[in-house]
Amino acid sequence: MIELKTTGEIQKMKDACKIAAGALHAAGEAVRPGVSTAEVNRAAEDFIIKHHAYPTFKGYNGYPAASCISINDEIIHGIPAKSRIIQPGDIVSVDVGATFNGFVGDNAATFAAGEISPEAQRLCDTTRESLYEGIKMAVAGNRIGDIGSTIQRYCEERGFSVVREYTGHGVGRVMHEDPSVPNFGTPGRGVRLLPGMTIAIEPMICMGSPAIKQMSDGWTVKTRDGKYAAHFEHSIAITPDGPVILTIA
Length: 249
Description:
The protein is α+β, with helices and mostly antiparallel strands. The protein has one domain: Creatinase/methionine aminopeptidase superfamily (Creatine Amidinohydrolase, Alpha-Beta Complex), CATH 3.90.230.10. The chain has 4 helices and 15 strands. The protein has helices spanning 7-30, 37-50, 118-136, 144-156; strands spanning 54-55, 67-71, 74-76, 91-100, 103-112, 161-162, 168-170, 177-181, 198-201, 204-206, 212-214, 221-223, 229-231, 234-239, 242-245. The strands form 4 sheets. Strands 8-7-9-14-15 form a 5-stranded antiparallel sheet. Strands 1, 2, 4 and 5 form a 4-stranded antiparallel sheet that branches. The chain has a 3-stranded antiparallel sheet with strand order 3-12-11, with no helix packed on it. Helix 1 (7-30) runs antiparallel to helix 2 and helix 3 packs antiparallel against helix 4 (144-156). The longest helix has 24 residues, at 7-30. 52% of the residues are buried.
C-alpha cells in the first residue's frame, strides 16, 4: 500500500533526509586512496549519531554497518571492512540512510578515489545525470514507468546498461515502502504519481552487461563480467508544484 504524506510529514522527512545527505557528504570526503571502507563507514555513522539520528541500515535484516560501500565492479551492498583498502583509480559507491523523528532519508553517490579512467568518469557522470533526468519525470499525474524509461533510455543511449534485479522504492516511515521504482520501463505504465508520495530514485548502471552475481557474504552484489558499476540516489517528494529533492545537505 502506498502511503501519502501530509505537508507536515514531508517536512519531518526532510529533516531525516538532510542528515542522510550530510552523512553521505562526510563519507564522500573520506574516500581517498589508502583509506579503508570501514573508515568511510565510520565517517557516515559518526555524522548520523552526532545529529541525534539512527543509522537506518545498521541491523536492517541483519546488515552489520551504517552504510553500504561498493567498489568498482560491486554494484550495491558492499560491507565495510578494515581490510578493504581503497586504491588509486577506484570508484566507490556509498549508500547511507538516517532515521530521525520517525522518518527515513536514503541517498547514495559514487565517488572517485583520485584520478579515474575517462570511461569510469563517463559512467559516473551518466549515472548521476540519469538520476536527475528521472527526477524531472517525477511529476504528479505521470507514472512510475515515465521515470524508469527515462533513466533507461538516457543510459543505454550512452552505451551503458541498467540493473534489473534491484530498483528504487518508496521511502518514508520505513526505508522500503511501496511502490517499487525501477530504472527501466515503459512510458505511461505503472503506478500513477500523486502529491504526497515520497520515493527513492536510484539508478544502478553498469559499464558492461547488467548481469549480476551475489557474493557468498549474502549481501554484496557484483557485475558478472567484472566491469564497473555506479550508483546514485535521492529521496524525493511528489508535490503539486513538481518533484522536491529531500536529500540535500
